[in-house]
Amino acid sequence: MTDEEIAIKLTVLEQETKSAKHRLDDLEVQNQAIQDLALSVRELTINMTRMMEEQEKQGQDIDALKAVPGKNWGTVKKALSNAFLGSLGTAVGAALLWLLKQT
């Protein structure tokens, strides 16, 4: 092998080495981007889990707030019913007393 052939092969080898180094540099950048993406996905998953827990808590709070008017309406109906029955009982009692007084 002549010096010229060795020089050509050495030049080709240097070019291939530069190309391989360039590809390795690109792969390192891509690898870092993938790692950053994986960390972002992990953070997103943690945040979504927290949001889901908060939404469940808010749903329970909303259900409790929805129940309040129903409880109040039940109390109002009970009070009206008691007032009506009390008035009816008073009217019946007064009518009986009036009838007894007439005889």
Largest sheet: none
Q: Spans of 5+ residues with little confidence (pLDDT < 50)?
A: none
Beta percentage is under 5%
| SSE ordering | H
- Radius of gyration, in angstroms, nearest whole number: 44 Å
Separation, N- and C-terminal Cα atoms: 149 Å
Give the structural class.
mainly alpha
Number-wise, the strands total: 0
Write up this protein.
With 103 residues, this protein is mainly α. Helix content is 97%, strand content 0%. The protein has one helix spanning 3-102. The radius of gyration is 44 Å and the shape is rod-shaped. 0% of the residues are buried.
Name a few traits of the molecule:
single chain, mainly alpha, rod-shaped, 1 helix, 0% strand, 103 residues
Task: Give the SSE map.
Layout: H1 3-102
Summarize the structure.
With 103 residues, this protein is an all-alpha fold. The protein contains one helix and no strands.
